[in-house]
Amino acid sequence: MNYQELADNIKIWAKELGFQKVGICDVNLQEHEAALQQWLDAGYHGSMDWMARHGMMRARPNELLPGTVRVISARMDYLPPQAQFASNLDDPTQAYISRYALGRDYHKLLRNQLKKLGQRIELEVGAFGYRPFVDSAPILERPLAQKAGLGWTGKHSLILDKECGSWFFLGELLIDLPLPVDTPSEEQCGKCKACITSCPTNAIVDDGIVDARRCLSYLTIEYDGVIPEEFRKPMGNRIYGCDDCQLVCPWNRFSPLTDHDDFHRRQSLKNPDLIELFSWDEARFLKNMEGSAIRRIGHGQWLRNISVAMGNAPYSQHIVEALKMRKGLSLVLDEHIEWALEQQLKQVREECGINITHQRLIRIINKGLPRDA
C-alpha cells in the first residue's frame, strides 16, 4: 500500500466533507503527561471530575483505542457572519453567547463527518480499525492538533493557526494505519500577552495554563453550582461562554467565515434581549435550543446565568419584576436572583443619593424608579 498517496487522498476527502484542514500525527504524547498531572493536582479542572478519572489515558490514544498508531486531526471553521461581537458585548441589556454556540451543536456534525471519512478510507483499503472523537472521550486534542500541524497552542491554551486564527472546532479520527506524519506547528505567539491581560477573571494563570475555576466559559457552561460572587460582576452580560481571549488575539484578524449554514446564528438568538430570554419557560427553552450545544446546560442553569447578567444591566423596573417572578424555583437560582436584585437596588441608591433609607429603596424598587429621581 502506498501510504503517502493514501494520506494525500485523505486530506482531499476531508475537505470534500467540509473540513478546512487535516493533519496526521503519531500517538506519543509522553512529553505532555507531567504537565497534565500538574494541572490536575492543582485542581484547575474544577468540578470536571471526568478529567481526572481516566488518569493518563488522555495522553495515550493507543490505550483509548488499542491498536491505534496514528491520529487524523481535523479542523472545521465556525465563525458565523454577523457575529455581532461588539454590539452584544457593549449592550448590557443583551446577552452575549460564545460564537461557537450560536448555531447547531458541533459534536454530532463533526463526528458524523469524521465517521464518513473513516468509511471513505475503508472503501480504499478495506476493513481497518478506526474511531472518531469530538470532545467525547478523554483525549488531549490540542497537543494532537499541534503535532499534526494544525496550529500551535496559544497562551490562552487554544490552538492557533497563522492563516485562520482560532475560530474552529477540532475532531480526531484514531486509526491503525501507519500513515506518514505531518510536521508539528511551531509556537508563534512571541511576547504577546493580549489574551492573558484581557481575561475578565484572570483565569489564564500562566502561558497555556487556564484555571477552569476562574474561567467564565467553565462557570457558565460546565459548572452548575453557585457562581462565586467575585466572578459575577466580571461576567457582565456573558450568559454562555466567553470569547474575550480570542477577540483580542491578533491572529484572529485573519479568520475566515464559516461555509457551514449549521453554524450561523439561529433565529431565536437574533435579538438576545436578556428579559426576553429570561422569560422562556422550560418547554420554550428546550424548543428554541433544539439541536444547540446550549441545551445541555438545562433551563435552571440558563436562568442562573441570565439572572447574573440582569444584575449587571442598568436599572430597569422590568428587570426587577422579571427577577422576582422567578424566585422559588431553586435555591441555587434564588441565590443569584437575590444578588441581581441587590445590584439593581444599588443603582437606585446611586441615582437617589446615599442618604436614602433601605425601606425607601425597597418602596422605589417596588413602584419603579421615577424618571426625575
TrEMBL record:
Keywords attached to this entry: 4Fe-4S, Cobalamin, Cobalt, Cytoplasm, Iron, Iron-sulfur, Metal-binding, Oxidoreductase, Queuosine biosynthesis, tRNA processing
Any Pfam family matching the protein: Fer4_16
Catalytic activity: epoxyqueuosine(34) in tRNA + AH2 = queuosine(34) in tRNA + A + H2O
Catalytic residue positions: D135 (proton donor)
GO BP term, pick one: tRNA queuosine(34) biosynthetic process
Cofactor note text: Binds 2 [4Fe-4S] clusters per monomer.
Pathway: tRNA modification; tRNA-queuosine biosynthesis
UniProt GO molecular function: 4 iron, 4 sulfur cluster binding; cobalamin binding; epoxyqueuosine reductase activity; metal ion binding
InterPro entries membership: 4Fe4S_Fe-S-bd, 4Fe4S_Fe_S_CS, QueG, QueG_DUF1730
Signal peptide boundaries: none
Residues where [4Fe-4S] cluster 2 binds: C199, C215, C242, C245
Ligase as UniProt keyword: no
Entry binding sites for [4Fe-4S] cluster 1: C189, C192, C195, C249
Its EC number(s): 1.17.99.6
Location in the cell: Cytoplasm
NCBIfam families the record matches: tRNA epoxyqueuosine(34) reductase QueG
Subunit structure: Monomer.
PANTHER family: EPOXYQUEUOSINE REDUCTASE
Chain's role: Catalyzes the conversion of epoxyqueuosine (oQ) to queuosine (Q), which is a hypermodified base found in the wobble positions of tRNA(Asp), tRNA(Asn), tRNA(His) and tRNA(Tyr).
Protein's name according to its UniProt entry: Epoxyqueuosine reductase
Species whose genome carries this gene: Vibrio renipiscarius
